[in-house]
Design goal:
single chain, 38% strand, alpha+beta, five-stranded antiparallel beta sheet, elongated, 2 helices
């Protein structure tokens, strides 16, 4: 997904506690830089800032980023000559979405007073349908095979 001209993500939104791949095909790539580093930080004050050397590909420079829990991901790019692409001084800023959990598919049960919690995943409708259908096929094949055996036994007498 292209969120800004010449910057692409491998996902449609940036979600906390996930890894995303950023592809940069902007000014520094177009001007044949030999090495590009992405400088990232979080929130309004660039907390947890770090530099990641990007890998050069035919599509642009690419880097994988582990997104932490915060409200905003900030980044800009620099090359080996100290030239920056920082979106004309505005930097590139994207909202970080909260991770969503499917509460319907998880049941938590306390096993004993001092025992840790166990997590059980309830089967999806598709899994239930598949199992039910398989059981029906098995039942009908047994039913018909018994009827066939009885019919064959009746003919032999």
């Amino acid at each position: 997904m292209e969120l800004v001209k010449n910057i692409f993500f491998n996902t449609d939104k940036i979600v906390e506690n996930t890894e995303i791949k950023i592809t940069y095909a902007g000014y520094l790539f177009q001007n044949k830089s030999n090495e590009v580093t992405i400088h990232i930080g979080y929130g309004d004050n660039w907390e947890n800032a770090q530099d990641i050397v990007m890998e050069k590909t035919e599509l642009g420079y690419q880097a994988s980023v582990n997104v932490i829990e915060d409200s905003k991901l900030n980044f800009c790019f620099k090359n080996e000559n100290g030239e920056w692409d920082n979106n004309s001084g505005q930097n590139y800023q994207f909202k970080i979405e909260k991770q969503e959990f499917e509460e319907d598919n998880i049941e938590i049960e306390k096993q004993a007073e001092d025992a840790p919690l166990a997590v059980y995943k309830t089967p999806s409708w598709g899994e239930l349908f598949k199992k039910t259908f398989s059981n029906l096929i098995s039942y009908f094949s047994k039913l018909f095979s018994k009827n066939t055996e009885n019919a064959n036994n009746g003919n032999n007498e």
